[in-house]
Amino acid sequence: MLQRLGMELPEWARTGHPHIRYELGQVKRVSRRVKYGQAVGFSLLIVLLFVGGYFIGTNFLQSVPGQSLTESAMAILFWPTFILQIILQFAAMTLTVNTVSEQKRRLTWDNLRATEGGAGVALRAKWASVYYRLRLLLGLVVIIRVGLVLGILYDLTAFQGRYIDLLINNITPEVSPIVGALLLAFLMTAALLLPLTAVGMQAAIGLLIAVNIQQRVYNVMTQLIIIIVRLLVIVGLTLATTQFINNQITLGDAPAWLLTGAYAAIGDWGLRFLHVGFYSEIWATIPYTIFFGIALLIFALAQSLVTEWILAFSIRRAERIG
User: DSSP H helical segments within the chain, as ranges?
Assistant: First the structure.
């Protein structure tokens, strides 16, 4: 999957492939008025989210958002980005969940299945088209994360470049500044990859539903159940982690590590850890959390492997049961 996100895309994922052109052409055939309305609605949503983020970050204009530029940026950008990420993952699933039923409605599904590898290429192209169709939203999320990563690099220049020495002071286990910087680099890499792999996995889940549940009523019910369960998990992890950080609940080291790790992997995709001041507090509070960067990077790679398995399984099911 990571190769598909790089420069060397497979043939079926390139814009010149007939299936990709067809999927993207469906969007282009929308009337100009509808496109204009969608653009205005998207712009208003973005503006409202970031204005809301500023109000939340400043406690409704009662205080400054933070003591430094990077702290202020995180205070203002966190909740808008968090909401955009939730929208992004559910949009990825809904874009693929009706793939088979749409092909059957157009009377093209049987022709695809009759062609050697046709169903597989069509499903993979549909999966790849999600990245093209969500490129603005996904790009915004990634750009915000790149800005926060640059903020981390800026913070590390403080105290004549010895800021990392202060961050790793009195943490468990003790590590050298070079190792600490390397582990922080793993975290930054994982935080940039997680939105990409998460979107791919949600799109693959949508294809799995499309292949196995083609009746509209059951299809919609399955979508709603998945959305509700995932929202409950995200909200639960967010509330529990926030309460732990604010000392409202007490946990042992192992449960605290698992809670904050699950929150970073599933809840906000490592977003909050992109403020190095906050992340270093986690290091000092919970032993071995300095290795979260490696854990999240492994999680992102595992997520891509699971996505590949889901795609392969969906293709086999489509070829076997139609």
Answer: 18-28, 32-57, 69-94, 99-105, 109-114, 118-133, 135-155, 158-161, 163-167, 177-212, 216-245, 253-262, 276-285, 292-321
Q: Which residues contact 148 (CB under 8 A, 6 or more apart)?
A: 70, 73, 74, 77, 191, 271, 274, 275
Query: How far is Cα 193 from Cα 190, in angstroms, rounded to an integer?
Result: 5
What is the enclosing helix (H) or strand (E) of 31? none
In the structure encoding, which two tokens stand for residue 201, read together? 């996995």
| Cis geometry, peptide bond prior to residue 173 (ω within 30 degrees of 0) | yes
Secondary structure (3-state) at 36: helix
- Render 130-199 in DSSP notation, one character per residue: HHHHTHHHHHHHHHHHHHHHHHHHHHTTHHHHTHHHHHTTT-SS---HHHHHHHHHHHHHHHHHHHHHHH
The pLDDT tens digits for 244-303 are 999 999 999 999 999 999 999 999 999 999 999 899 999 999 999 999 999 999 999 999
Asked whether the beta carbons of 211 and 233 are under 8 A apart, the reply is no
Q: What angle do CA 296, 299, 300 make, to 5 degrees?
A: 90
Answer for the pair 219, 209: CB distance below 8 angstroms, yes or no.
yes
Sorted by sequence, the CB contacts under 8 Å of residue 265 that are 6+ apart come out as 194, 295, 296, 299
Task: Return the exposure string of 291-307: e unless at least 16 CB atoms fall within 10 Å of the residue's CB, then b.
Answer: bbbebbbebbeebbebb
Beta carbons of 304 and 190 less than 8 angstroms apart: no
- Alpha carbon of 314 to those of 2, 97, 117, 211: distances in Å? 19, 12, 13, 6
Report in angstroms the alpha-carbon separations of 192 from 180, 201, 268, 271, 273.
19, 15, 12, 9, 12
CA torsion 17-18-23-28 (nearest 10°) is 100
Q: For the whole model, what pTM was predicted? A: 0.89
**CB distance 269 to 198 below 8 Å:** yes
Q: What is the pLDDT of residues 14-51, one digit of tens each?
A: 666 666 666 666 555 556 777 777 778 878 888 898 89
